[in-house]
Structures are given as structure tokens and as C-alpha cells.
Design brief:
- The protein is 31% helix and 24% strand.
- The protein has helices spanning 17-33, 144-176, 186-194, 213-219, 232-240, 264-275, 290-305, 314-327, 373-388, 394-397, 463-478; strands at residues 2-8, 48-54, 58-65, 75-81, 88-89, 94-99, 104-108, 113-118, 125-127, 131-139, 280-288, 333-336, 341-344, 350-352, 354-356, 359-361, 364-365, 402-406, 425-429, 433-438, 444-457.
- The strands form six sheets. Strands 11, 14, 17, 18, 19, 20 and 21 form a seven-stranded mixed beta sheet that branches. Strands 3-10-8-5 form a four-stranded antiparallel beta sheet, with helices on one face.
- A hairpin with a 4-residue loop joins strand 12 and strand 13 (341-344).
- Helix 8 crosses helix 9 and helix 8 (314-327) packs across helix 11.
- The chain starts with a strand and ends in an 8-residue tail after the last helix.
Length: 486
């Protein structure tokens, strides 16, 4: 318990009533928070004395740990901080945005208080269960142990600052002592650093031996020799001692660089490592897209009226795959090695590879078996838009059962796609191109041919099953009127 005495004179009693209580409490709180224990006195004789007893209100520091965000994610990359040290935040205020292997997540505050420490910089990895920030929150039940802990923390901080300052001073002394410094402006030094050049090796033409930008360009051979006229001070030095012939400039050696895998690339490393454990069975075929091109053109106006600006081939391929999966459900299964059993998936959640600024991602369209081509096209456009803006969520990637990839938008015909475990099959469509073909009358006609490559888990799916599945898929693309039956 701390005791403070506040005195006032009888003639000018400025502390009375509600004002007295408010002012007294404010003054006492100020003294407690600033560690002051002196007496407040007035010069006039006191006629009224009041004693105030308060319990110290201490601040407690709390670590804010990164909670589990699901999907087996154990680490994330910090992409953006919305706060800084010293900011006062409330519950549910946005703190930062983190990027996992699959999606971006915004982290919100669980406390009201002041931020005293941020543990990670932008683009650093943060582990689930480890601290992200440190808060200073009000603790009405603090004791001497908390105070001593706080004092020791402050002492540790001061010692760290002192050690850092000493280290910085040593670095400065070591950097300047015993070394010849070549005169040059910061811009020239930056240019030399970009080209990995030692300024001491560049012949100067500036005043008193200063290296100029033109000297570096001439040294690199980007301007003709003799372009830079030496300063008169340099001319005098040359007359006193004839300059030695210049050696041929060395060829700069490109430097290697090391980049730590993170984000989508790190996720690809994990998923493809698992994929290589699967024995792949490959099957390829060609599809005549001529009829589908005409059918799509007829549907374009109706698609635009229903919110699909451009109807591509991909919704037709997805719906055809869903029809084939209904006939061959083993292709829509997953393998449980622990129990040596197959799990037949009821929903057709077809994953689609999408190229985004962050890399290739594979979200999925849910329940394709219950949707028509226009509905699938709208869902696909939504995934593409969210992928471009980096706003895909973990639910967009969860529970995929079968995959399709349209490599043809980039180029190429046949490929060998890798299965995404725990799925058991994947298909990749190549580029559609016009080629000569014979019709039923042995006449050469122009046909639009698309190639497709399938990969299946040969532990589960045999060649006949995969070929039969492909034939059903092919039949609906070559005879698009069959879509009306589903």
C-alpha cells in the first residue's frame, strides 16, 4: 500500500467535492505510474489534510502466439504489418496478414493494449504456436514478482542496447582503420557495387584522384577509351610520373544467389515429393473439338446474359469429367494406405490449376455433379479472380477429389501430369490446333484437335479403366449435344 498526502489551505480550498476526488485520483495515478514517492506540499499553512491510499496498478506483458489456422499448416510468411511498436489496439483489430502454402489470412488481436514488440519482419517465417507480437495489458493483480520481472526486463534491454552500441562502434573503427579509401560519390559507389567492382582498380580522372561515373563506364568498356578527360590535378601527376599501360578490364563474373523456398514453391516441393511415391500410369488421346467450337459459339450470348463474359472450353471439360466420374467412381476415390482401403468420394470437387502472380495454385470447384456448365463457368471465373488478387482461402483448396490442368493456354500438346496425393488421377489438356483430317468420305478437311494426357495411380486404377473413363469424357466433348442429358 502506498500513502500520499495532499494539503490545501482553508482560504483557497481547491480540492473539494467531485473535483477534489477527480484531481486527487489523477495526481495519484500519475505518481504511481512514474514511480514518484515525494511529498506534495503547499507554501501556505495547511488547515485541511487528506490521506489517499491506493494499490499500485501494474502493466503485464503478454505474448500473442500464432494460432493454428487449419489444413495442417505449421508455418506462414508474414506479408504485411498493419501495426507498429507503440500502437494501441483493441480486440478484433487487424494486426497483420500472413501467407501460408495455400492462402492469405488476416490475423486479428485478442487483447486490448499496447504493442511493445514485433517478433517477425516482413517476408520472415512465423511458426504456429510461437509469438507474433508482445502486448502490454492492464493487470490489476500484479505483485512484487511481476515488478521485479519488469525491472529485470528493462535492465536486459538496456544491457542489450549498450552491447549493440559497443559492437557498432567496433565495426566503425574496424571499417575505417588501416584502409585506403578511394574518393567517390555515393552514386558512383552504388554503380560500382552493382557491377561488383573494386573502386581502387578503376583509373580515376576526377579532381585529386576522385573516381567518376564515366571512369567506371570506361573501365567496363561501355564507352570508348579516352572519353573522359582527366582533371588538371591528374595531368600534373601524370607528367611527373608516366602512367603504366592500362591492363585489359577483367570480365565480370556473374554471382550465384541462394533463394529459400517459401509460399507456393515450398508447397510444390512437399506435394511433388509425395507425388513421386505414386506409381504413375499414363494414357493419352486426341479429341476433335470442331463440334464443340460451334456449340460454344451458340451458347455465348446466353452465357453473357447469365454473368459469364467469355465461355471457354474449360467448363465443358470439367462437366464432362464429372459425367465420366459418375460412371467410373474409382477415379474419384482416394487410397488409405494405413488400412489398405479405398475411399469413394461422393462429391465431385474438381481441382483446376490456375496461374497466379504467386505461382501455380490448384483450388477446386465444389459439387460439379450438381451444377450445369454455366454455373461451373461462374465458379471457375471466381476462383481465377481470387487467385489473381491473392484472396483464395483454405476452403478453396480443401477436399479436392480429381484434377484437371489446361497446359494448352501456355503451349504444348502432350505432357505427363503428376498426381496430387491423396487423389488417384489427373488430366492435362494440350493446345487446340487446326490439322488436316479425313472425313467419312475420305476427304481432307480442317479439324480442330486437342490432345489430352491422363495420369492414374496404378496401385488402384488399371489401364482399361482409365481408357474407358477417357472415352466417356471424349464422347461428350466431340458430341456436345449429350450435355443436354445431364
Amino acid at each position: 500500500m502506498l500513502s500520499f498526502r495532499f494539503t490545501t489551505d482553508g482560504a483557497n480550498n481547491i480540492l473539494k467535492g467531485p473535483t477534489q476526488k477527480t484531481t486527487t485520483m489523477a495526481m495519484a495515478t500519475h505518481l504511481l505510474r512514474n514511480g514518484s514517492t515525494f511529498w506534495l506540499r503547499r507554501s501556505r499553512p495547511s488547515t485541511l489534510a487528506r490521506c489517499l491510499h491506493l494499490t499500485a496498478c501494474l502493466d503485464k506483458k503478454v505474448a500473442f502466439n500464432l494460432s493454428d489456422i487449419g489444413e495442417g499448416i505449421r508455418e506462414v510468411t508474414v506479408k504485411e504489418w498493419f501495426v507498429k511498436v507503440g500502437d494501441i489496439v483493441e480486440q478484433f483489430d487487424n494486426l497483420c496478414e500472413v501467407q501460408s502454402d495455400k492462402a492469405s489470412v488476416t490475423i486479428t488481436s485478442r487483447y486490448d493494449g499496447k504493442i511493445t514488440r514485433i517478433f517477425h519482419s516482413i517476408d520472415e517465417l512465423a511458426l504456429v504456436g510461437k509469438p507474433l507480437l508482445e502486448f502490454e495489458v492492464a493487470d490489476e493483480e500484479g505483485d512484487e514478482e511481476t515488478s521485479s520481472s519488469s525491472s529485470s526486463s528493462e535492465s536486459d534491454v538496456e544491457s542489450v542496447k549498450t552491447a549493440a552500441a559497443a559492437a557498432a562502434g567496433a565495426t566503425i573503427d574496424a571499417a575505417t582503420g588501416g584502409r585506403l579509401i578511394t574518393p567517390a560519390t555515393p552514386a558512383v559507389r552504388r554503380l560500382a557495387k552493382e557491377h561488383k567492382l573494386d573502386l581502387a582498380q578503376v583509373p580515376p580522372t576526377g579532381k585529386n584522384g576522385r573516381v567518376l561515373k564515366g571512369d567506371i563506364l570506361e573501365y567496363l568498356g561501355q564507352v570508348p577509351a579516352g572519353t573522359n578527360v582527366p582533371h588538371p590535378s591528374m595531368q600534373a601527376g601524370k607528367q611527373a610520373a608516366p602512367a603504366a599501360p592500362l591492363a585489359a578490364p577483367p570480365i565480370p563474373k556473374p554471382a550465384d544467389r541462394v533463394e529459400v523456398l517459401k509460399g507456393v514453391r515450398k508447397s510444390m516441393l512437399k506435394s511433388m515429393s509425395e507425388s513421386l511415391k505414386i506409381p504413375h500410369f499414363a494414357y493419352s488421346d486426341e479429341i476433335d473439338m470442331s463440334n464443340l467450337m460451334k456449340f460454344r459459339a451458340q451458347l455465348q450470348p446466353a452465357a453473357q446474359e447469365q454473368g459469364v463474359p467469355k465461355l471457354t472450353f474449360m467448363p465443358f471439360c470439367i462437366k464432362a469429367a464429372s459425367i465420366a466420374l459418375a460412371k467410373y467412381p474409382i477415379v474419384n476415390s482416394s487410397l488409405d494406405l494405413a488400412s489398405e482401403s479405398l475411399i469413394y468420394k461422393g462429391a465431385h470437387n474438381i481441382s483446376v490449376a490456375i496461374d497466379t502472380p504467386q505461382g501455380l495454385v490448384v483450388p477446386n470447384i465444389k459439387n460439379c455433379q450438381a451444377k450445369n456448365i454455366i454455373q461451373i463457368a461462374r465458379d471457375l471465373n471466381g476462383l481465377v479472380e481470387r487467385g489473381r488478387t491473392g484472396s483464395l482461402t483454405p476452403s478453396d483448396f480443401a477436399d479436392g477429389t480429381f484434377s484437371l490442368s489446361n497446359i494448352g493456354v501456355v503451349g504444348g500438346t502432350y505432357t505427363h501430369p503428376c498426381i496430387m496425393a491423396p487423389q488417384v488421377a489427373i488430366g492435362a489438356m494440350g493446345r487446340t490446333k487446326p490439322v488436316p483430317r479425313f472425313n467419312d468420305k475420305d476427304e481432307v478437311i480442317k479439324a480442330y484437335i486437342m490432345s489430352v494426357s491422363w495420369s492414374a495411380d496404378h496401385r488402384v486404377i488399371d489401364g482399361v479403366t482409365m481408357a474407358s473413363f477417357s472415352n466417356v469424357w471424349k464422347q461428350h466433348l466431340e458430341q456436345p449435344a449429350l450435355f443436354l442429358l445431364h
